[in-house]
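Incident review: delayed structure delivery

Summary: a single-chain prediction request sat in the queue longer than the usual turnaround. Root cause was a stuck worker, restarted by the on-call engineer. No data loss occurred. The affected request and its eventual output are reproduced below so the record is complete for anyone auditing the incident later.

Affected input:
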Amino acid sequence: MSKVWTPRRRVFLTSALAAGGMAAAPMAFGATYPSRNIKVFVPTREGGGADRNLRAFSGVWKKYLKTKFEPSFYPGAAGRVGYETYMGKAKADCYNFLFGNMGPEMLNWVVKKPSFSLDDYFYFGRVDVDPSVVFVSAKSPFKTIDDVIAEGKKRTLNVGTSRLAHPASIGILAVGDHTKAKFNLIPLSGGKNTIAGVVTGEMDLGVLPSGSVSKKGTKVLRSLLVFDEKNRLGARLSSFGVNAPTANDHFGMKLPPLVSARAFAIQKAAADKYPDRMAILNETMLKVFDDPDYKKAVLKTKAPWENIRYGDAAACKAYADSITEIGEQFKSLMTGKK
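Output delivered after worker restart:
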């Protein structure tokens, strides 16, 4: 994704029909947009974090676009099925979006290139920034990340993750590489299954975005480490009253923030053909973040409001480029190939 989409100069129809003695009134291309429902392709299963995030946002966005959103879910192959379906079947008319998690999905392209060009689509609106965390069951003998490292030097610990190619997966593998602790990543297909694997004791520990972990509460899960500049959720990511430290502060590492970021994507062809429609989308999307109903919707899902942060196409591209660079750096850890 080497280019950032920028809107062309708005185009208006102003033609004089001299032969009939009539003149067409100026009319913007986007004047009647949207005139029907908008379809959203989601490359994960229904009921997960992306689904909850999408419904909270679109439930308010529809007030400003004055239309409904129709989500369709395409789980499989760590998001690849959803992207392949969207890029192969969705009409490029600004009535079809993809709502994905930029972090793991860009990492997926690092591990294995897609069948389409990455320049054929772009993310135009980020909804949140969700840091990765290391967590254990409240019944786990591990009280701190140092307990985990000490045990990991004695035996290989099984680590549950939603996807192998994920910012959270990179985080724990980088910590293992730094401390010489041994971790075996086991993808459990989604956040719910990952949390279940940790709670039942099947996994020694898990790694996920903070929102999925914090909503369970410290009586169910204990957070031991955060892969961000600081622990923004404080006591909601803690163990026995001690807030989880960051990997960089605790281990003296220099990792960039390893965060998930959900965002809306669209085909570049659609944006190029309908710049006025894109202008409407960008303008109305911004209104959602200032609407108190959106905050209520987010809090109703038990997701942290602190993680809600808008990002435009340029911010999305910067993130996608950054996470791709990180993925290339740790590609051997994600694939198990040196």
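Verification: DSSP finds 13 helices and 18 strands in the chain.
Action items: add queue-age alerting; document worker restart procedure.
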